[in-house]
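User: Before I run my own analysis I want an independent prediction to cross-check against. Here's the chain; please return only the structure tokens and, at the end, one sentence I can use as a sanity check.
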Amino acid sequence: MESLSTFWLSVLLFVLILASAFFSASETSMMALNRYRLKTLSSKNNLQAQRVERLLKNIDYLIGGILLGNNFVNILAASIATLLALKIWGEGSVIIASLALTLVILIFAENTPKTFAAKNPEKIALPASWLLDLLIKIFKPLIYLISLISKSILNFLGLKNISKDILNSEELRMAVVDSKSVLSKNYQNMLLNIIDLEKVKVDDIMIPHHELVSADINNEEELFEQLKRIQHTRLLIFDGSENNIIGTIHMRML
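Assistant: Structure tokens:
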């Protein structure tokens, strides 16, 4: 590598910084993806979404592959930056070159791509999935070893339990509330009422027996009088006793 000219070393360094930005953006976009949106796209036979779903099902391999690639290009970039500094400015410039490369990577290969990926996860994750899938397949033995060591450390620390991506009622309620830009107010209220059904008690919807409006089917005068006063479309009817409800009469039947 020392035999390469300054120009080609600079080109290689630029490519490695771009590769580092790719891995950083890919990692953030994969973690920021809306899983339910992803499932919707996958159900519509979107091949990229199906590939991303498959990668996310084995999150250990995905993270291992991304970090392997990212660390490799960053370390190689640091080596090339050191060679460039030695070729151009001599031995005294190595520390300055390291600091400059750190700043460049932080801005152009970490902060900027990760911020963009967090705001536009689908634009990054879906097209990047094929390359990540390819890299994971090529370096699968090494990634498997990294994943095995990581799992062993987590198990040793008692951190092996992984939380499931399932919403409880309060989280689902918050998701509906935050969907103002997508759902109309009527649909939003309807969904919130459905979610809140579990909080409704029988006492909240029951009508006490003494408040029921009913009439004896054997007393025509009372029956017609009730039909004149009733504000509902149906009238309860009983036979002899109010406890012996036999049905209802609809106003349209008259």
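Sanity check: Residues 169-200 form one domain.
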